[in-house]
């Protein structure tokens, strides 16, 4: 998404309509914050803090550095959300609604798998969780995530690789536990 076509950053000395710049990114910003902190109110606080910080430091944004406004703003949101996580360790489970257009059984099975994946993501460290959220849930490129998190692209790739490995391990353990439970039920019949 290239927002500079629709919402150009004005040249120095020109008036800035901050609301016009951030409005298209607020839903995404809240989603990123929520997926990192797992708390509706803390996510709102993180976005509020990010908006204030972005407003105060808008003069520092320079699109000539190759960063889109969206990525620059999401970097601020991500850091504010990670700060919230550091302040509060308790998390709530992220819940999504069931797709009504899908076969009910498929929908339930899909929902269960999504919950298992989300539980695995919740158990990750904030640095791995934020990379997963920015990549898979928000669609940022590896280069953009590296800029947002202030790390090398190789570090982002490494974090995503480790995150995928952790998710696969959690799903495998869950699958094996379920299989053992089924075998125990069959033996007792």
Helix coverage percent: 55-70%
Overall number of strands = 0
Q: DSSP helix count?
A: 8
The proportion of strand residues reads under 5%
Morphology call: globular
Major sheet characteristics: none
Give the end-to-end Cα distance, rounded to a whole number of Å.
57 Å
Q: What is the string of helix and strand elements?
A: HHHHHHHH
Structural class: mainly alpha
User: Whole-number radius of gyration?
Assistant: 20 Å
Low-confidence stretches: 1-8, 90-98
Overall pLDDT score:
77
What would you say this structure looks like, in words?
The protein contains eight helices and no strands. It has helices at 18-22, 26-37, 40-56, 69-87, 104-122, 126-137, 142-149, 153-188.
Keywords:
globular, 189 residues, 8 helices, 68% helix, disordered N terminus, mainly alpha
What's the arrangement of secondary structure elements?
Elements: H1 18-22, H2 26-37, H3 40-56, H4 69-87, H5 104-122, H6 126-137, H7 142-149, H8 153-188
């Amino acid at each position: 998404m290239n927002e500079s076509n629709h919402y150009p950053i004005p040249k120095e000395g020109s008036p800035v309509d901050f609301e016009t710049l951030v409005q298209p990114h607020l839903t995404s910003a809240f989603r990123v914050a929520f997926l990192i902190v797992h708390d509706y109110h803390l996510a709102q606080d993180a976005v509020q803090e990010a908006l204030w910080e972005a407003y105060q430091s808008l003069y520092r944004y320079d699109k000539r550095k190759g960063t889109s406004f969206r990525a620059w703003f999401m970097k601020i949101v991500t850091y504010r959300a990670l700060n919230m996580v550091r302040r509060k360790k308790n998390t709530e489970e992220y819940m999504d609604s069931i797709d009504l257009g899908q076969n009910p059984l498929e929908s339930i099975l899909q929902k269960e798998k999504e919950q298992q994946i989300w539980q695995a993501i919740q158990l990750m460290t904030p640095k791995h969780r934020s990379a997963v959220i920015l990549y898979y849930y928000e669609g940022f490129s590896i280069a953009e995530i590296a800029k947002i998190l202030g790390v090398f692209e190789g570090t982002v790739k490494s974090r995503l690789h480790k995150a995928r490995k952790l998710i696969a391990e959690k799903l495998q353990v869950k699958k094996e536990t379920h299989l053992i439970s089924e075998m125990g039920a069959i033996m007792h019949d």
